[in-house]
Amino acid sequence: MNTFTWVKTHKEIVDYLRTQRNNQPHLIEILNKVGIVGLHDQNKRGKRIDLNEIDPFTFFCFIYKYGPERRLQFLQNIAKELNLSMPYDDLGIPSVNAQKVCLFPFEPKRVNNEINRLWDFFESALKDSITDEEFEDILTINGTGKSKITACLFNILPEKYFPIN
Could you tell me the CA-to-CA distances from 76 to 44, 73, 100 in Å, in that order? Predict the structure, then answer.
């Protein structure tokens, strides 16, 4: 039985994401292309609009808002789309609350560079240089919390972090 095959795929996705900070619409396009729905934001009038920016943690969260069969299929479709190793399981990956997938608030409430701070945090995690201050700062972003951010760290570095959810 092939277990934890997703780890290699996640590592390859992380390597890909590292190069996409300035190409966030492309990341959203990938999620759309593989059939992931709900990629929306909200404008100042409360009208639903298409999402046009994303952080790497939220990218993974959109995959894991689905049940086991669908999320594995989405992960496999992303692997095909990006020509990555094919995962055959998703054993141990925490699910995400489908009602609050993004680690950042809707557009009108993004007033403190939240998405760039999440990208900076992602890069710090990959460099193994997260400070206590940086961790505390990320927790102040509406949409994060200790259980959610630890699950996100687990998604990008499963051999280093463990989710507390």
Answer: 36, 5, 23
Separation between Cα atoms, residue 121 and residue 144, nearest integer Å: 12
Cα-Cα-Cα-Cα dihedral sign, residues 98, 96, 38, 66: negative
Distance, CA of 122 to CA of 49 (rounded, Å):
26
Domain range summary for the chain, segments of one domain joined by + = 6-156
Q: For residue 144, what is the DSSP state? A: B
Amino acid 69 reads E
User: What is the spatial distance between Cα 150 and Cα 10, in angstroms, rounded to a whole number?
Assistant: 15
Could you tell me if 74 and 63 are in contact, meaning their C-beta atoms sit under 8 angstroms apart? Answer: yes
Residue 100 is encoded by which pair of tokens?
């609050």
Tell me the three state secondary structure of residue 41.
strand
Q: How far is Cα 125 from Cα 19, in angstroms, rounded to an integer? A: 15
- Averages of pLDDT over runs of 10 residues in the chain (165 residues) are 92 98 98 96 94 97 92 97 97 91 95 97 98 97 93 96 86
Residue 142 · residue 105 · CB < 8 Å:
yes
pLDDT for residue 2: 83
Q: Cα dihedral angle (107, 54, 152, 48), rounded to 10 degrees?
A: 50
